[in-house]
Amino acid sequence: MPQATTGHCFCGRVTFAFTGPQTWACHCHCADCRRNCAAPVVSFLGTPLNGFEWTGQSPKQFNSSKGVTRHFCDTCCTPMAFQADHYAGEIHLYAATLTHPQDFTPAFHVHYNSRLTWLHLDDDLPKHAGSAP
User: Fold this and answer.
1) For the whole model, what pTM was predicted?
2) Contact (CB, 8 A) for 84 and 71
3) pLDDT tens for residues 24-75?
4) How far apart are CA 17 and CA 53, in angstroms?
5) Is it true that domain 5-113 has CATH number 2.170.150.70?
6) Alpha carbon distances (Å) from 76 to 96, 100, 124, 127, 131
């Protein structure tokens, strides 16, 4: 059986594990993600719901817009995950919540045209103006 990838919130009450593949990994510059995390850019990885589970306390949910649900810890308020109708069957986890975030390898940027002009990133990753194709 493959080793599970795990993660947790700041206080450790909300935890997760998945054994499925990572479907993608990116940096998101959209205003919604930045505002949700109070960060200049947010890094995500996607995985199929099949093979994913919340292993500790289940997170609370917030429907941030039509067809979009954000998961967070109701104790320490750590943002944990993002789900959207247009990514059916997947959950997108915040890379910083991984038990070993240093193992995260981003592959591209999304909503790059919405980036904050004062944030300068020096990488050669593909940069998509909006969502990934």
Assistant:
1) 0.91
2) no
3) 999 999 999 999 999 999 999 999 999 999 999 999 999 998 999 999 999 9
4) 6
5) yes
6) 15, 20, 35, 33, 30
